[in-house]
Structure formats: structure tokens, C-alpha cells
Design goal:
Layout lengths: L1 H19 L10 H18 L2 H14 L7 H31 L5 H4 L2 H4 L2 H15 L4 H49 L6 H55 L4 H9 L10 H18 L1
């Protein structure tokens, strides 16, 4: 919601300023200019990016305007989920852990935090790593795999925001293309009335205006928002990695969670006392259930 508000402020300020200066909106309402710039922009994106990346980028751009995915509450739930998993593994052994990772949606630890179960990539990251631990793979090898996994994700995420950066860089140039076409039309009308020539020049300049405003007022801010969202997602996986690595090295569940907690960005990191209290409260509820 906040990114959408920011974009509305940008366009509102431009329109208000233009109105206060006594500007006429008639030259701005030229569909031909929009067709040239928007069509060329779409063609640029299609040419520069594979279809899978375009689809993934469109989905992620919609998320930029949605709710923030990672909040203090979601981080706390993640830490409690990790503690429940690691505690379950220590108490029930490798066989039960392997069964739980084979059917995570049926496992009570996962079901307690349904929001995480809905993300198949998170489930895969967790369960595949825990399966490796049941197979006796060394902690060093597991750490190497996790680092490679996160590096791949980093590259995929960067490709999406990078495609928008390329588009933002291209839009002013595409606006100039539209303006040049307008100038060409104007040059063919030099024998006409001065007022008509003035209108055509104004129309030509609209292309430059649209290209620059859409670049710096829309696409570039969205690309920056997408980069920040990508950072949060990567940090989420780094937190999971920290907890998992502490687990495969044989540390107690509570210590594993503390490793994970320290990997959370400070502005969203739950306090130690809050995590400890929530963890103990969860243990109390499990004992009552039993």
C-alpha cells in the first residue's frame, strides 16, 4: 500500500503543479504517444527476457504493492517453527524426522504454522536439508549446498529487478523516439497555421515527458522496491540456513533458534525474551495436547 501511495504522490504532484501553472491537458491526452512508448517498452522487455522470467517478475511486482511479507510476527513464527522441528527431531530420532519431511503438510509442527506450509520453496529448502542430515551427509557438505542454493536464488531474484532497471533506463530514450516522430510530423506541416504547428510541437514533447516520468516516477521506484523485497527474501533463507546449520552440527534446539534469530534484520528481530517466552508457551500447549 505504501509504494502505491508514493507513486500516486509523484503523479499527483506533477499534475497539480502543471495545473497551477495554467497548463492545458489537451496536448497530454495523445493516445498515439502512449502506444509508441508502451508498445516499444513491452517489446523491449519481451526481447530482453525469457518468458519464465517475465512471468515471475510480473508476480513479484504485484507483491511490491501488497502487504509486507516479512514482519516481526512472521519472523517469530518462523523461529518457533524451527524450534518445533529441531525439538521434534531430537526427541523422535532420524526415522521420525525423515517421515515428517516426506509429508510435511501432515506434520503437526508444520501445520501449526500454515502460512509457511503454503510456500513450497520454503518447505523444499527445509525438508531437503533435513533429509540430508538423516542420510549422514557432513555439515560442511550441507553448508556448501545451502550456500549454492542461496546464490542461485540471489541470481534469479536479481534478474527480475534487473529487467526493470533496464526498462527504466530505456524509457527516456523511447520517449525521445516518440518526440522525434512528432517533430517529423511537425516538419511536414510548416506551411500551416502557427497555432497548428505549436500544437504539433507540444504533442511531440509529450513523448519525452511520458518517457521520463514513467521511468523515474514509476518503473525505477518499483525496481528499487523489488530489490528491497528480494533482499528480505534472501535474508529469510539466510536465517533458515543459520538455524539448519546449527542443527546439523548437533546443537540444542534452543541454541539453533538463537543462531537463526541473530540472522534476522535488527528492525524486525524479535527480542530474546519474546522468543523464549513464546517457545515455552508453545511447549506448554503441546504438553496439554498430549
Amino acid at each position: 500500500m505504501i509504494p502505491l501511495l508514493g507513486i500516486l504522490v509523484v503523479f499527483g504532484a506533477v499534475i497539480l503543479g502543471f495545473t497551477l501553472e495554467g497548463g492545458d491537458f489537451a496536448p497530454l491526452l495523445k493516445p498515439a504517444e502512449l502506444v509508441i512508448i508502451a508498445g516499444a517498452a513491452v517489446g523491449t522487455m519481451v526481447t530482453a527476457n525469457p518468458a519464465a522470467l517475465l512471468r515471475r517478475t510480473c508476480v513479484r511486482v504485484r507483491r511490491v504493492f501488497g502487504r509486507r511479507r516479512y514482519t516481526r510476527d512472521s519472523w517469530l513464527k518462523t523461529l518457533l517453527m524451527l524450534y518445533g522441528l529441531f525439538d521434534f527431531a531430537r526427541k523422535n530420532g532420524m526415522t521420525k524426522l525423515e517421515e515428517a519431511t516426506d509429508t510435511p503438510t501432515l506434520n503437526p509442527v508444520f501445520k501449526r504454522y500454515a502460512g509457511l506450509v503454503e510456500d513450497p520453496e520454503v518447505l523444499s529448502f527445509l525438508c531437503d536439508t533435513l533429509r540430508l542430515s538423516t542420510l549422514g551427509v557432513s555439515p560442511m557438505a550441507i553448508e556448501s549446498m545451502l550456500e549454492e542454493d542461496i546464490d542461485i536464488r540471489r541470481g534469479e531474484l536479481a534478474a527480475g529487478s534487473g529487467s526493470l532497471v533496464i526498462l527504466a533506463d530505456a524509457l527516456p530514450g523511447l520517449g525521445i523516439v516518440a518526440a522525434v516522430l512528432g517533430v517529423i510530423i511537425t516538419m511536414g506541416s510548416l506551411t500551416g497555421q502557427p497555432s497548428l504547428i505549436g500544437q504539433k510541437v507540444a504533442t511531440a514533447l509529450v513523448g519525452t515527458f511520458i518517457g521520463i516520468l514513467s521511468s523515474y516516477g514509476l518503473v525505477a521506484p518499483v525496481a528499487a522496491g523489488l530489490e528491497k523485497m528480494d533482499y528480505e527474501e534472501l535474508q529469510y533463507y539466510e536465517t533458515l540456513r543459520a538455524g539448519l546449520m546449527a542443527y546439523v552440527r548437533g546443537m540444542p534446539a534452543a541454541i539453533c533458534v538463537e543462531y537463526a534469530r541473530r540472522s534476522i534484520p535488527t528492525e524486525l528481530r524479535p527480542d530474546f525474551e519474546v522468543v523464549d517466552k513464546a517457545r515455552r508457551q508453545g511447549e506448554k500447549f503441546r504438553q496439554i495436547d498430549h
